[in-house]
Amino acid sequence: MNIFPENVSTYGQDIDQLFWLVLVFAGTAFVISVFILLYPLFKNHHSRIQRAKYITGEGKAHFKWVIIALCVLTMSDFIILFAEHHTWEEFETLPQQKDAEYIVTGRQWNWAFTYPGLDGNLGTADDVVIDEPNSELHVPLSKNVFFQLKAKDVLHSFFVVNSRLKQDCIPGRTITRWINFTKEGKYDISCAEICGIAHSQMRNFIVVESQEKYNTYIDSLYKQHSATAGGN
């Protein structure tokens, strides 16, 4: 049974496996720590031992357990670092092939999406901006989709849970991340950073569709934008 939301990205499964690995080590350390804390309370109950012993913990018999615990924790950290290296390298390294790119700007309280215009370049006069609550960002399936992540006012966090991508957005900075989606559908985009009184309502969507459907949507978006711009 998978307790996580459905994964729809190429690197999501690797991130899930890292979660389980960290959970095993952290859970084991937690259980041992609780046992060490509670066991002496029951073993040395006043009904069994009338006079408590004062132990400084500086003797070799006691100090060795500090060294053992330190070595075990250090070893577990190195195991996690070794296991996560490939996953984070894949996640952090931008693919050479860029199939689509958008600007995603967090603001109080929704995500604004910027599509490149007919010239195919972002940051030009013909860009198409959608800045509405509950709006959708359309992206093509099985393509390397790049996001230029920004924040307009305060800290936000771009979180597409089904892809396992979560990235803080910082005012004054542009951070580039990518996703290659493996399944069509409509998925939540939420903010994972408390950003104000309406933080809980900051919800948009990302629509993953085939290249044909995506092209149709983009054509209609350009026509609608041109009609609106002409009307103004």
Topology:
Blueprint: H1 12-43, H2 60-92, E1 100-107, E2 110-115, E3 128-130, E4 136-140, E5 144-151, E6 156-160, E7 165-169, E8 175-180, E9 185-191, E10 203-209, H3 211-231
Parallel strand pairs: 1-5, 4-10
Antiparallel strand pairs: 1-2, 2-3, 5-8, 6-7, 6-9, 9-10
Helix pairs in contact: 1-2
Mind explaining what this structure looks like?
The mean pLDDT is about 90. The longest helix is centred in the N-terminal third of the chain and has 33 residues, at about 60-90. This protein has three helices and ten strands; from the N terminus they run ααββββββββββα. It is of the alpha+beta class and about 230 residues long. The chain has two domains: about 10-90, no CATH class; about 100-230, Immunoglobulin-like (Sandwich). Helices cover about 35% and strands about 25% of the residues. α1 packs antiparallel against α2. The protein has helices spanning about 10-45, 60-90, 210-230, and strands spanning about 100-105, 110-115, 130, 135-140, 145-150, 155-160, 165-170, 175-180, 185-190, 205-210.
Order of helices and strands: HHEEEEEEEEEEH
Largest sheet: 5 strands, mixed
- Taken from the alpha-carbon principal axes, the silhouette is elongated
CATH architecture label of the largest domain? Sandwich
Which residue ranges are poorly predicted, with pLDDT under 50 across at least 5 consecutive positions?
A: none
Count of separate structural domains: 2
Distance from first to last alpha carbon: 54 Å
CATH T-level topology of the largest domain: Immunoglobulin-like
